[in-house]
Fold this protein.
Amino acid sequence: MRYLKQYGKSMKNKKRDINYGRRRFLTSAATLAGASIVATSPVASFASGLQQAVASLTVKDVIDIILKEVPGAPFPKTVDQLRSGIMEQQVTGIVTTMFPTIEVIEKTAKAGANFIIAHETPFYNNEDETDWLQQDDAYRYKIELLNKNKIAIWRFHDYWHSHKPDGIVMGNLIKLGWNKYYDASSPRLLTLPQPMTLRTIVALAKERLGIPSVRLVGNLNESCNNVF
């Protein structure tokens, strides 16, 4: 009986720790997202004080704030490097994106922002090697666009995946409404409280993630409890 009480207490503490980690993640994400919105939105009239606070930050300041939330950061080797701009420049607005395409850069400039935090590489290969691209028209146009608008790009890949919980995984779970099923002891495996058909999961993903189509293999009527 004593063992069962202790076990129950440890499980309760474990659940509390998981919930705390989730709340801390959401708070950090909301803070950074809020800074981005305030800095780029001309209609946020209530946030003039916050705009001044964001405007006083440099690119390095923003990166340092993010790295404080990542275990073991900074890493001795990572692809998460500043790919354009300089660390000392003042941030006027932050845009987050998966792919820092030319369209994203143009919209960043139009919004009055000058700092892009991108999950994937801006220059077409994982290490962002550009020696072979010096005469490439697309690369040169992209560089000139960044330089003209003084836009900094920082890749945020390794650190985001190293966050506890993984930023990409949790971001998807939040969009799907499944973050409450997250288990830190098995972060890649999700157990649904009630079975869902594959057809229902596909429809949910298309609606919540805003995607027109999903490619899949399997029986749409198959019932699923565990999602990997």
